[in-house]
Design brief:
Elements (H helix, E strand, L loop, with lengths): L3 E2 L8 E5 L1 H11 L6 E3 L3 E4 L3 E3 L5 E3 L2 E4 L4 E4 L3 E2 L6 E2 L3 E4 L19 H8 L5 E3 L4 E4 L11 E3 L6 E3 L5 E3 L9 E4 L6 E3 L8 E8 L7 E6 L5 E2 L2 E8 L3 E6 L1 E7 L2 E12 L3 E6 L2 E11 L3 E6 L2 E4 L3 E5 L5 E4 L2 E3 L10 E6 L5 E5 L2 E3 L2 E6 L3 E4 L11 E3 L6 E5 L12 E3 L3 E2 L1
Parallel strand pairs: 1-3, 2-4, 3-6, 4-7, 5-8, 6-9, 7-10, 8-11, 12-14, 13-17, 14-19, 17-19, 18-20, 19-22, 20-23, 21-24, 22-24, 22-25, 23-25, 24-26, 25-27, 26-28, 27-29, 27-30, 28-31, 29-32, 30-33, 31-34, 32-35, 33-36, 37-39, 38-40, 39-41
Antiparallel strand pairs: 15-16
């Protein structure tokens, strides 16, 4: 027989009758055969634990309603469109060892908990595929799986002018794949040591705009998680957009933070983080590096409302290239510094082709080693500022020799050697 329709064996999808015994009987009848189980339209209550073997696909036109304190464990594939497949207070767990291309949050309903339930239910290596819609959640989403993929259909906030320069559209994203956090809480949190090799792509996280929360947060203890990739993910209206602590070997490709006090904060034991073309608009500091090593930024834009672009404190072997810092009071971004280097852990090994419109493009505080490659500061007469409290600053220029030969005006009040 091509499939088993549960109603042909006595199941009743009225949302009241218990169908667990019928489903167990059907599974026993199928045995080792790879025969799909078809659940037609309706609500089929299950009042006891049920396990679906790996060789039996579920074809879901209706839904299973799990009773409290009971569970449905699915080892095989699920065939369903974007409609509710699982309901009730009971637990649903998917442990498929067969490649399941998509797990849709809509399978778990639309009551504000569907995305959290999806991330808990799906197995290692699975993909949670977001629709072009807004998912509302009242609490932080905290996946614990490895090899987790969260993939949306994109979102709209940036536009690019005819010169290739990115600009901010007005307001937060209102279309696309958006996760909206309604309470004062973090957005997406990876805190378990098992959360490694995750991939996030083409969605935005919209915060409440208040409190001390983070949009996307990694906090897993000493090098507890890592090897994550991020592509075109936006974070909006949190205290900290990207809060990255105790992680290693992550790539952030064309990510965005807007409406946050701090766009990106890297702290703790972090190593080898690569930011490619980030787009950051912060009410305080665009990027703040408190610790770690091997932090690299290549390209991107920082617009600062109050303080400035990048603050480096205790980060070793940092590299910054092809980045534009915008602080223009007339355009609503009255930030002061482009890069503030306050560290004894250096050296800052690269600062190449960086342009800015800042009050103080580069400020050195403390003992530093800075190796200049090529610099192209724009729209300001002072390209380099070493304040009086800077000591033992070492300035090296690979192109033309000492810093005094760089060809632009400098303001030097503190100690330095070249």
């Amino acid at each position: 027989m091509p499939s088993c329709n549960v109603c042909d064996y006595g199941a009743i999808g009225d949302g009241v009758a218990d169908n667990a015994g019928t489903l167990v009987q059907i599974l026993a009848l199928i045995g080792s055969k790879a025969i799909p189980v078809h659940v037609p339209a309706g609500s089929f209550v299950l009042n006891q634990d049920v396990v679906i073997p790996a060789h039996i696909p579920l074809h879901m036109d209706g839904q299973f309603v799990m009773a409290a304190n009971h569970s449905l464990t699915i080892h095989g594939p699920i065939v369903a469109t974007r409609h509710q497949v699982f309901g009730g207070p009971g637990l649903v767990t998917c442990l498929s060892n067969v490649r399941q291309t998509n797990y849709y949050p809509e399978w778990w309903g639309a009551d504000g908990t569907e995305l959290a339930k999806t991330l808990v239910a799906i197995p290692t290596g699975a993909t949670a595929r977001l629709a072009h819609k807004t998912y509302t959640t009242t609490g932080a989403l905290q996946p614990t799986n490895r090899l987790l993929h969260i993939v949306g259909k994109g979102w709209g906030c940036l536009f690019v002018d005819g010169f290739g320069h990115p600009h901010w559209a007005t307001g937060p994203p209102v279309t696309g794949s958006v996760i909206k956090v309604t309470n004062v809480t973090d957005g997406l949190v990876f805190s378990a040591n098992s959360t490694q090799h995750n991939h996030l792509e083409d969605f935005a996280i919209l915060g409440p705009g208040t409190g001390t929360t983070s949009g996307l947060k990694y906090a897993a203890g000493p090098l507890g998680c890592g090897y994550h990739t991020h592509k075109r993910v936006g974070v909006f209206n949190f205290a900290t957009g990207w809060d990255v602590a105790d992680v290693q070997d992550c790539v952030f490709d064309n990510v965005t933070a807007r409406g946050c006090i701090t766009g990106v904060k890297a702290s703790g034991i972090v190593t080898e983080l690569y930011w490619r073309d980030p787009q950051l608009q912060a009410n305080g500091v665009g990027m703040e590096w408190v610790g770690g090593s091997g932090l690299r930024v290549d390209g991107g834009l920082v617009q600062a409302n109050s303080l400035g672009g990048i603050r480096i404190m205790g980060s070793m072997q940092s590299e910054i290239a092809r980045m534009w810092f915008e602080a223009n009071a007339g355009q609503g971004f009255p930030g002061t510094f482009g890069i503030e280097i306050n560290t004894t852990a250096g050296p800052i090994t690269g600062l190449a082709r960086v342009g800015n419109r800042m009050t103080d493009p580069v400020i050195f505080v403390g003992a530093n080693t800075l190796n200049f490659l090529t610099m192209a500061w724009n729209h300001h007469p002072d390209a380099l500022i070493i304040p009086a409290n800077a000591v033992n600053t070492v300035l090296l220029n690979n192109n033309v020799g000492p810093v005094t030969d760089l060809g632009y005006r400098t303001t030097i009040l503190g100690q330095y050697t070249s």
